[in-house]
Specification:
alpha/beta; single chain
Amino acid sequence: MTVLAHQTDTLTRDALAVLQPGFEGTTAPAWLLRRVGEGLTAVGLFGRNIDSPEQLAALTAQLRAERDDVLVAIDEEGGDVTRLEVRGGSSFPGNLALGAVDDTGLTRDVARELGRRLAECGVNLNWAPSADVNSNPDNPVIGVRSFGADTHLAARHTAAYVEGLQASGVAACTKHFPGHGDTSVDSHHALPRIDVDLDTLQARELIPFKAAIEAGTKAVMSAHILVPALDPTRPATLSPQILTGLLRKELGYEGLIVTDGMEMNAIAGTYGIERGSVLAIAAGADAICVGGGLADEATVLRLRDALVAAVREGTLPEERLADAAARVRELAAWTLRARPDARPEGSRASGIGLTAARRALAVTGAPRPLSAPYVATLTPVANIAVGDETPWGVAAELASLLPGTEGGAYPEGAPAADILAAAGDRTVVAVVRDAHRHAWMAQALEALVAARPDTVVVEMGLPRAEPRGALHIATHGASRVCGRAAAEVIAGA
């Protein structure tokens, strides 16, 4: 009986160790601290958990008072996807902007400074960077989160990002394996499918992940995508062929494999999160990310119990769960040993995000002096990864440079005539995001430029549409610093 009790306790601790759950609030709830004490080794943070760097540091200290090696993970890509600066916009441009500059030293320094800020707040695992090659320009969920459509550019910047982030003592989690760039469906909503042959995958999708592995990435995140050339029946997150066969054996990766959020509909709507979590661990994943949408104790207990039951029923080998838990603990131990290298010089570090954003701008046409323009922001529905909490655009930044600037937000269906009426005699600054993907947006731009040839156009998404307007600025991302850099050009600052 004593041996059985010990085995049960070990099994339960291992099941808790492989979970990366979320929670509500800006302090750790009692149930979370209790589970950390029982073996939970990681937690995931989202925008709802963060008010300020000081508050975040207090939160992570609260967690570490319970367990000093707890992994505190966050989805902080910089650019459009930010949790650290969810309410104000990121101080760093995203991957597409860095790829547009194509200076790997700059990418490394940006990632190192971002990592330093995370480490100061007690965060030691970042679910970034995106190594996806954005080969499909209509991709609804990757886009500017990718370094670009060029495989080798994406590879060298992925490696630089991993090196920079981990130099600050924060583990990188390269995503979304085996590559989410050629999808036309958002896996938050449904299961995407990539129908390309194995040669294409080897020459395109896998190259940046190989570069990340060579750079020493501590974690890799799986994608909820179906890739028939690799596995015709199961999405990558649940596929032994992809996680164990390809990632572990063929590519020789030995670090932590983390799933994308299991409550995403690609998994939750097809397999369910309990069965999906069991299948993911069995397939070779080591950590289950859940908590973006499900953030309560009941979810943690459901997944813990599902894993324990699967071992007892023989559908999940106990040694596979033990191996997964050991990999989680190994990464947790690394974070205690990791020491950041020398940070960039203070002036460079403090302004490096804005410096990068300025360098990423592509300007067509000549700026001319403006007084107080009217900023019309054409607003598409944000995807779940980006969220709608974070402000974007140029209006606020432009108003700080040109007092008296006014503006409004215009969703799909708003006629150009409304913008022109609101603008009056002011020059119109039209701000768009992925105009090539939204016919209504392209039509509104066409009408605005036809009526007002002096219109300024700022594209803050993927700049695929032809430049139009008297001045066209492509920022390659919608972070706060991208908006600032564009505003400086418009204002002649």
